[in-house]
Amino acid sequence: MTELVDHNALIGGYPFRALPDPTPARLVADMERLGIARAWVGHVPSIFYRDVAAGNDQLFAALAPHRDRLLPVPAANPGYPGWDLEIERARREGCPAVRTYPAHYGFDAGGELMLDLAAACAEAGLELVLTVRLEDGRQRHPLDVARDLIGAEVRAAVRLNPKVHLLVTNADRALVEEVHFGSTRAEASRIRWDVSWIWGPPEDHLAILYRTVGRDRFVLGTHFPFRLPENALFKLELTT
Amino acid sequence: MSVAPAKTSPLVDVHVHFLHDRCGRADWQAVNARRLALGERIGITMHVASILGTWGHTSPTYFPSPDDVAYGNGALLELMRAHPDRIRGYVTVNPNFTDHALRQIETGFDMGMIGVKLAASRRAGDRLLDPIAELAAVRRAPVLQHIWQHRQREVPGQEISDAIDLMELAGRHPKTQFILAHIGGGGDWAHSLRALVGVPNIWVDLSGSGVDRGMLELCVECVGAPRLLWGTDLTMDTGLAKLRAIEAMGLSADEMEAVRWKNAERLFGAKVMGD
């Protein structure tokens, strides 16, 4: 039986809504309850910090007791000094990926800063995680003005470096299709998607995407601690 | 964690939609069949459904023409006849056509429908809805009101209502029972739940694509298990996730039975339990 890996988990508090118990201990307990073996784990506060290196310090420290199951996915802001050291730290620590948030950090997902970040991730063998949204756009706090990532930005990012690999989280069917069919086969082969924001049955958006985009492009992602992790698992099971 | 039901007690889905041949979708029968088949797998014993006109094909989903309203309600009656042990119906109405709406409700109830569906054709607090709410009370049937949790602006395609709007209507009609639709259907659900503390004639359905952590806990805290109704809406995976999550929250056996079916029976009557 294939080991279940959650590719889209985070820990830490969120400024705009109370997230119940967003801790590594709760994440591990939920994984245990739901049969998830390991998780790639980012850090919510680092999305809002200016100095994400300090946030990465907190992430590595928080996950240290759980490193057998929780793999840190630190953040990188290519517009802030020292970002290259965070890439090096991620490589040294055996992280599978690095997260970046162009809308929150205020840089162009298809521009020069992203070009440098994509090259560094490709060189280090780290997948680059982009997040389309953190919450449903209909429930945003008035100060939560970071816009959703759009398809053009994902397409631009994957074209920046022929060796960069993207994992795009919290995308819906329309965005997946727009990017997939707006990319060459070679580009599309370097993009993976998590299932957390894609509709399951009876509309069966995920099943349709399995057929049109390819099942191998999709990974389990729960978006813990924002969303109930049960949902992504049921979606996979009901789609299978 | 299993899709299959952990228990064999009834499970009533109070927020269901079906399609028909005039929705402009070639896959309408497949989607309906998929919902029913999945319902069997999950353990749903009754789908309480509505059809919003032609779902935008020949008039807007949330502003359906009288002809489309009638066609959708007729299609739902056909589904009820085809699946008498699994499907019950809400009469969908557009209150801007008041006389037509009232006739649809009378006809629908006479043919076995058990609730009224108000989409987003007119804001919930509008006086134009009063005759509909009065008729629902006379026929002892609940009104399911489509809700955008915490309306902060107008949006295209809907005259959206939130909990505050629905509370206006519910306050004028204390003998009518209302269901605040899909707490997970978009918007600030906490705003709705905080507003509904102590409002006895508004129930909350748990449906919608939203599966935010913390939402179910606040539902229990603010509304309480005796006024919560389980449902799915357009996404059954999210409904199932919320059912299993609420089971894991540690509610008592009686409270779980209430959410699964007993509240629905109290609200709709014995007809919702089938034969």
Short account of what is shown:
The complex is a heterodimer of chains A (240) and B (275). Chain A has helices at residues 24-34, 52-63, 83-92, 102-105, 112-124, 151-159, 173-180, 185-188, 205-214, 229-239; strands at residues 5-11, 38-43, 70-72, 97-100, 127-131, 166-169, 191-194, 218-219.
Overview of the molecule:
The complex is a heterodimer of chains A (240) and B (275). By secondary structure, chain A is α/β, with parallel strands linked by helices. Chain A has a single domain (5-239), classed as Metal-dependent hydrolases (TIM Barrel). Helices cover 38% and strands 15% of the residues of chain A. Chain A has 10 helices and 8 strands. A 5-stranded parallel beta sheet of chain A has the order 4-5-6-7-8. In chain A, strands 1-2-3 form a 3-stranded parallel beta sheet. Chain A is globular, with a radius of gyration of 17 Å. Chain B has one domain: TIM Barrel (Alpha-Beta Barrel), CATH 3.20.20. Chain B has helices at residues 28-42, 66-82, 98-110, 130-138, 163-172, 189-195, 215-222, 236-247, 253-268, and strands at residues 12-17, 46-50, 87-93, 115-118, 143-145, 178-180, 202-205, 228-229. Chain B has an 8-stranded parallel beta sheet with strand order 1-2-3-4-5-6-7-8. Chain B is globular. The model of chain B has no long low-confidence stretch (mean pLDDT 96). The chains are: A alpha/beta (240), B alpha/beta (275). Chains A and B meet through helix 10 of A and helix 1 and helix 8 of B.
